[in-house]
Amino acid sequence: MQITIELPDNIANQLQLQPANISHRILELIVADNYRQGHIGAAQVRQMLNFSSRWETYEFLKREKAYLPYTEDDLEQDSQAIRNVLSQE
């Protein structure tokens, strides 16, 4: 799919976007936003942006402030699972 976006030069300059990087940067923003919304996972981010490792993927997500969706309920479930494992020893 190809999408064309008209962006005035003064706006591109304010955003410090170089012509060669604009297309990739827009892809990064779309991917990060979809990750934040829970539409895609980290593996899909890695594939879409062609990262060589999951650590590179996590660094990108951190830089974009697209953190893992981890709630207090998730924490409680994980804590309970750990307590269950430890009580079986």
Structure in words:
The chain is mostly helical. The chain has helices at residues 9-14, 22-36, 42-49, 54-63, 72-87.
For the report, how would you describe the main beta sheet?
none
Radius of gyration: 19 Å
Cα-to-Cα separation, first versus last residue: 54 Å
β-strand amount = under 5%
Low-confidence stretches: none
On the 0-100 scale, what is the average pLDDT? 89
Summing up helix and strand content along with how strands pair, one would put the structural category as: mainly alpha
- Could you spell the SSE succession in H and E letters? HHHHH
Number of helices: 5
What is the number of beta strands? 0
* Share of helical residues: 55-70%
Apparent shape:
elongated
Which terms summarize this structure?
89 residues; mainly alpha; 5 helices; elongated
Topology:
Elements: H1 9-14, H2 22-36, H3 42-49, H4 54-63, H5 72-87
Helix pairs in contact: 2-3, 3-4
